Amino acid sequence: MTTATGDAIKMKVKQARLEESVGKRVLLQGWVRSRRDSKGGFSFIDLNDGTSIKGVQVIAEKALENYESEILKCGIGSSVEIIGDVVASPAKGQATEVKALSVKVYGYADPNEYPLQKKETSYEYLRSIAHLRPRTMTFGAVFRVRNEICRSIHNFFQNQGFIYVHTPIITASDCEGAGQMFKVSTLDLLNAPRKADNPAEIDFEQDFFGKPTNLTVSGQLEGECFATALHSIYTFGPTFRAENSNTTRHLAEFWMIEPEVAFCDLEGDMDLAESFLKTIFSDVMNNCADDMEFLNEKIDNTILSTLKGIVESDFERLTYTEAVSILEKSGEKFDFPVKWGIDLQTEHERYLTEKKFKKPVILTDYPAEIKAFYMKMNADGKTVRAMDVLVPKIGEIIGGSQREDNLEILERRMKDFHLNPEEYWWYLDLRRYGTVPHAGFGLGLERCVQFTTGMGNIRDVIPFPRTPKSADF
Ligand code: 4AD
Ligand code: MG
Questions:
Q1: What is the DSSP string of 321-355?
Q2: What is the tens place of the pLDDT at every residue in 381-429?
Q3: Mean pLDDT value of segment 116-123
Q4: Percent share of the chain, pLDDT over 70
Q5: Strand 316-319 relative to strand 361-367, pairing
Q6: pLDDT, tens digit, 9 for 90 and up, residues 133-179
């Protein structure tokens, strides 16, 4: 981009591309990270425009006409435009610096009020100023990495011919059957219409959609309709769960990526999930090297070696039953005792990934009772073709399965889960007409960002977190 200032044409550059401009005159716009005034009659301004973790050192000399009147008033957070010459920096710490010819101030930030001063601030506090936290080094890095993960996800699927499908956000079905749904209604909460024949019940026929609806907990069921037509599809959208889990790994609103593939069994599903995660991690290391180095130094100094190790080795694959027996023999003291049939807790998942195998683990063939109705029943009649991908520190990052493709068995499973097959007539039609083996999984985007960046709390990897009792901004 070029911009005219006076009679000369200057290149407007982003700081991420500054090194290409040595010897050139440029125009930079950004926010002041710090200002240091030297006795020699000039100031160092650490400028950041958000395009990379590395700031630009700008040298502003006293001779500039607004040096006393404006530049010396620019504290942390002030927004400025600099026209200057890019030179190779004599000092350590940066490859280039900019000698300012002019400094224009867009807006000051009063140092007595601006909440982001140099001192370290806690993540809890930064959550209370979530509108400003993207301006910090850490959150800038996290959200650039989040963006790279999203790009990598789309590339991964698009490069293999998967079709991106937009599944509905408002739906009448409960995919996971867990009943943890936010209701969507335009009825008056205080004065909802009652059924004529049963005043104890609300008459949803008078509601906007003429029936009870909710925010989606998963796009999978609708995704299956498209996989059994277009072969390989993926969804990428917001997902809502009203579970009252105040943990570092749960959000009430999160983003999920759900591929679904026709003519695919559990083996194919696991292969897809493994190459998917490896591609994401290597893309992030290749394309966000500066941010990842910063996070590795600042947040968790094991993330780079962990990601590198994961990309270079195979995931461990074993059945739920084998995992339970390993846990029982482990001699570990777990808060939740282990026995066949229990839903594995994070402490169990972490033992397997961190202590036993020291790498990602894919567990398969879970007890039917603890998994969703749509998973394919095994011949043993007790377990289903489920798979969870577990990673160190986070536990479950992906949940998936081969789907039940037999109409009768699926109807029976629905009844076991107290779901009405008539309401899912369209989902059953996929088995009624030209049924095929098919499989898919869901990756929680925020768990993936959390794992990649090393951030301890999932609330710090989504722009504006929604959790129980908290929906600010
Ligand atoms: O294991 P889940 O519930 O699987 C499904 O929803 C399937 N329909 C996916 C499929 O087969 N198409 O959720 C998938 C992933 C989890 O592994 C986890 O990473 C993430 O979604 N997840 C959450 N992330 C943040 N906050 C929550 N409350 C989450 N619940 C699930
Ligand atoms: Mg799950």
A1: HHHHHHHHTS----SS---TTSPPPHHHHHIIIII
A2: 999 999 999 999 999 999 999 999 999 999 999 999 999 999 999 999 9
A3: 84
A4: 98
A5: parallel
A6: 999 999 999 999 999 999 999 999 999 999 999 999 999 988 787 77
Closest atom of ligand 1 relative to the 217 alpha carbon: 6
Angle between helices 407-416 and 425-432 (to 10 degrees): 150
Residues whose CB falls within 8 Å of the CB of residue 22, separated by 6 or more in sequence, listed in order: 86, 87, 88, 96
Q: Whose CA is nearest to atom 24 of ligand 1?
A: 444
The minimum-distance atom of ligand 1 relative to the CA of 258 is 12
124 in helix, strand or coil? helix
Sequence letter at residue 363: L
Cα 398 to averaged position of ligand 2 atoms, centre (Å): 7
Please name which of 86, 73, 77 lies closest in space to residue 47, comparing C-alpha atoms: 77
Per-residue pLDDT tens over the stretch 194-234: 999 999 999 999 999 999 999 999 999 999 999 999 999 99
Ligand 1: residues whose CB is within 6 Å? 175-176, 218, 220, 241, 243, 250-251, 254, 256, 258, 396-401, 440-442, 444, 446-447
- Burial class for 25, CB neighbours closer than 10 Å (0-12, 13-18, 19+): middle
Task: Dump pLDDT digits (tens) for 29-82.
Answer: 999 999 999 988 999 999 999 999 998 999 999 999 999 999 999 999 999 999
Indicate the residue type of 289. Answer: A
Domains of the chain with CATH codes: 2-107 (2.40.50.140), 135-181+217-460 (3.30.930.10)
Q: Who's near 242: CB < 8 A, 6+ residues apart?
A: 180, 181, 182, 252
Nearest to 273 by CA among 309, 310, 237, 303: 310
Contact 378, 404 (CB under 8 A): no
Report the chain's mean pLDDT, rounded to a whole number. Answer: 94
- CA-nearest residue for atom 1, ligand 1, is 399
